[in-house]
TrEMBL record:
This is MTMRD protein. The lineage of its organism: Eukaryota, Metazoa, Chordata, Craniata, Vertebrata. GO terms for biological process: regulation of Rab protein signal transduction. InterPro entries: dDENN_dom (IPR005112), DENN_Domain_GEFs (IPR051696), Tripartite_DENN (IPR037516). GO terms for molecular function: guanyl-nucleotide exchange factor activity. One of its GO terms (cellular component) is cytoplasmic vesicle. Transmembrane segments: none annotated. Residues 1-76 form the UDENN domain.
C-alpha cells in the first residue's frame, strides 16, 4: 500500500515540479486568493501541446490542490520536500530501475513512519476462546443499564464541552520551500 502511494507521490512530484513559481497571491479581497498561471507553467516546461497535463490543470482536483498547497505559510509535508529538494534525484534516476525502486521504498518507509510515529507500541492480542468455552454455564448476564445515570453523564459532558475552548490542530506552520524555478527543467 505505501509503495503504491510512494509511486504516485513521485509521479505527481514530477508532474507538478516547479508549480510554486507559477502561483500568484492576490490580496485585493478580504481573504487572499491564490491564482495559478497555467499558460506560464506549461510554456516554461515546453508542454503547451500536452493535452493530458492541460486537462489535469483544468480539473477541479487541481484547483483544490492549489487552494490547499498554494499558501506560502502552512504546514509542510513529504510532497513539499519531494518537489523542492528531490527533483534532481528523480530526474537522475529516470532510466535506472534499481535506483527508482530504492527511492520508492524510502518514500514508502517515510509514509509509514508518518502514519505510525510510535511503532514500539504493541497492540494487545485477544486470545482465541478455548474449545467448548461457549458451553460453560457460569457466564454472568450483561448488567442492566441505568437510563437515568446515562442521561446524567450525557448532560454533564454537554455542559463541560460548552465551556471548553474549541479544539485546534497543532500543525506547525512553516514557509513552504519553493524549489528550483520551472525554467530549469
Amino acid at each position: 500500500d505505501k509503495e503504491v502511494r510512494a509511486i504516485f507521490l513521485r509521479l505527481f512530484a514530477q508532474l507538478f515540479q516547479g508549480y510554486r513559481s507559477c502561483l500568484q497571491l492576490i490580496r485585493i479581497h478580504a481573504e487572499p486568493v491564490i491564482h495559478f498561471h497555467k499558460a506560464a507553467f506549461l510554456g516554461q516546461r515546453g508542454l503547451i501541446e500536452n493535452d493530458f497535463l492541460t486537462k489535469v490543470l483544468n480539473g477541479m482536483a487541481f484547483a483544490g490542490f492549489v487552494s490547499e498547497r498554494g499558501p506560502p505559510f502552512r504546514a509542510c509535508d513529504l510532497f513539499d520536500e519531494l518537489v523542492a529538494f528531490e527533483v534532481e534525484r528523480i530526474k537522475a534516476e529516470e532510466g535506472n530501475a534499481p535506483k527508482v525502486i530504492k527511492h520508492v521504498r524510502e518514500l514508502a518507509e517515510q509514509l509509514f513512519k508518518n502514519e505510525n510515529p510510535n511503532p514500539h507500541i504493541a497492540f494487545q492480542k485477544v486470545p482465541r476462546p478455548t474449545e467448548g468455552s461457549h458451553l460453560r454455564v457460569h457466564i454472568l448476564p450483561f448488567p442492566r443499564i441505568n437510563e437515568c445515570r446515562v442521561q446524567e453523564l450525557l448532560q454533564e459532558g454537554l455542559t463541560r464541552s460548552q465551556g471548553a475552548p474549541p479544539a485546534t490542530r497543532g500543525d506547525k506552520k512553516c514557509v513552504v520551500p519553493a524549489g528550483p524555478p520551472v525554467g530549469m527543467f
